[in-house]
Design brief:
Number of helices: 11
CATH topology of the largest domain: Aminopeptidase
Number of strands: 24
CATH architecture of the largest domain: 3-Layer(aba) Sandwich
CATH superfamily of the largest domain: Zn peptidases
Radius of gyration: 24 Å
Distance between the termini: 12 Å
Largest sheet: 8 strands, antiparallel
Strand order of the largest sheet: 13-14-12-11-17-18-10-19
Number of domains: 2
Helix content: 25-40%
Strand content: 25-35%
């Protein structure tokens, strides 16, 4: 039975756009400040989860909600379970948007909004692919569970809770990366570097803050200086020169005894920090030129000498590479310095290939730290993941993709982490096509509507080949 999946997908375009608009309009950033017993990861992620499950119930699927932390849409029956793994949470919007990030805007053939490409758009396209199979009443011999998590962008508590109470799929994919296919994912770990020192008498730096998530290169950074202990006019002049020399932008704000300097960089995904401009390390490199006290100098000289413009962890002593998985990447993304606190911190997000463990990296980083500083793993760490290109799952998905898109490139390894890695035979499959601008985790995130329609067809065909 020959099915023209592209033709069938085009019929669903208007409905998909309507549902995606609804989902983008939900601010589903993990919100621990407002978490409750009913909403353990905050109300936004739970609302988005319930919305996609409502789509499934509306369309006649079996649905299940696991404590407002994750859930699934189920179809078919059989001894094996194919898992499709998406997420409805998003990273914070950040600054620099030309539209409201939580009010989907359609213009120039694109849908703009936070989550449009990561991962609400591709996930809904894959869901519509499954819906197409159901609507066409195609014969299937396996069970499909489309699993949605609610904190993929942070600690994966939702998906881990799901796996505690529900059966783990036998194999599957996550529509949360790029084509042709991701069969290798580097290990992901965040290191917390803590500087422990007593406060000094003469304070130059009152505070230094930057970063909103460990998987996002910080777009802005700010420092508050004590004007009583600096030459304010000289600092203003030197900062303006620094900003101009580095082709950046910034602001100088004077208020009472404070002089605040704000520097603007460019955000990007932490898996490829070289594509961003780390506002924090640039601002720290400027601060390091001031006449600092010992506590301040230890903190800011470390950022300048060990972190600034080093995307591969060479200065931290952790740089290494793997023949297949490629090199390690290092992205220092969260900074908290306060003159009134004895401890100041930096969070460094690292993506590493096979060959070393997270504890190996801890030891190597500690060797580069000054005596008053320590390092430890912060949050959950994920080891590297790899599925052979000869695996039937990989071959089937790649063949399907090539039937729709003229691209003979081979599966790749990435520094990003997807839910595909929770399965021994799990991969990431789409939804970004080659040559498309990668706007994940960036302001003005969008997805091209034409791509969405092609995604429906590819996912429908791929799912059907895997379960018929």
């Amino acid at each position: 039975m020959e099915i023209d999946f592209k033709k069938e997908a085009e019929k669903l375009g208007d409905d998909l756009i309507k549902d995606l608009t609804t989902l983008i309009n939900i601010d589903s950033v993990r919100d621990d400040e407002h978490k409750t017993t009913d909403f353990p990861l905050g109300p936004g992620p739970a609302k988005a989860l319930n919305q996609v499950l409502a789509f499934g119930a509306r369309d006649g699927f079996i649905t299940k909600n696991v404590e407002n932390m994750a859930g699934h849409i189920e179809y078919g029956s059989g001894d094996e379970i194919l898992g499709i793994l998406g997420h409805v949470d998003v990273v914070p919007a950040g600054e620099g948007w030309n539209t409201d990030p939580f009010n989907a805007t359609i213009k120039d053939g694109k849908i703009y909004g936070r989550g449009s490409s990561d991962d609400k758009g591709p996930s809904l396209a894959a869901y519509y692919g499954l819906k197409l199979i159901k609507d066409l009443k195609l014969p299937v011999s396996k069970k499909v569970r489309f699993i949605f998590g609610t904190d993929e962008e942070s600690n994966w508590e939702g998906i881990n809770k799901y796996l505690e109470v529900e059966q783990t799929p036998d194999y599957g994919f996550s529509p949360d990366a790029e084509f042709p296919l991701i069969n290798g994912e580097k290990g992901i770990v965040t290191f917390k570097i803590t500087f422990n020192q007593s406060n000094e008498q003469k304070v130059i730096i009152k505070s230094f803050k930057s970063g909103i998530r460990v998987n996002m290169v910080p777009q802005t950074a700010s420092v508050i200086l004590d004007v009583n202990n600096i030459d304010a006019n000289k600092v203003r002049e030197e900062f303006s020169t620094f900003v101009s020399k580095n082709q950046l932008s910034g602001d100088i704000i004077a208020k009472n005894d404070d002089l605040t300097l704000v520097l603007n960089g460019k955000g990007s995904h932490a898996m490829d920090p070289s594509k961003g401009i780390n506002a924090a390390t640039y601002l720290a490199s400027f601060i390091n030129t001031l006449e600092l006290n010992e506590k301040e100098s230890n903190y800011f000289s470390f950022i300048n000498n060990k972190l600034h413009l080093d995307f591969i962890g060479e200065k931290l002593g952790i740089n290494f590479s793997h023949d297949i998985m490629g090199p390690l990447s290092s992205s220092p993304d969260i900074y908290d310095y306060d003159a009134n606190k004895d401890a100041s911190t930096i969070l460094v997000n690292v993506r590493y290939p096979e060959g070393k463990s997270d504890q190996d990296l801890v030891s190597l980083i500690q060797n580069t730290l000054p005596s008053m500083a320590t390092v430890q793993v912060d949050g959950h760490a994920q080891p590297p993941h790899f599925v052979s290109a000869d695996d039937k799952l990989v071959k089937t998905l790649v063949e399907t993709y090539r039937d729709y898109y003229d691209d003979n490139s081979e599966p790749i390894t990435i520094g990003g982490g997807t839910y595909g890695r929770i399965l021994d035979r799990g991969v990431a499959f789409g939804g970004m096509f080659p040559g498309r601008e990668n706007v994940m985790h960036q302001p003005n995130e969008y997805i091209i509507i034409e791509d969405l329609l092609l995604l429906i067809a590819i996912y429908a065909d791929a799912i059907y080949r895997l379960i018929k």
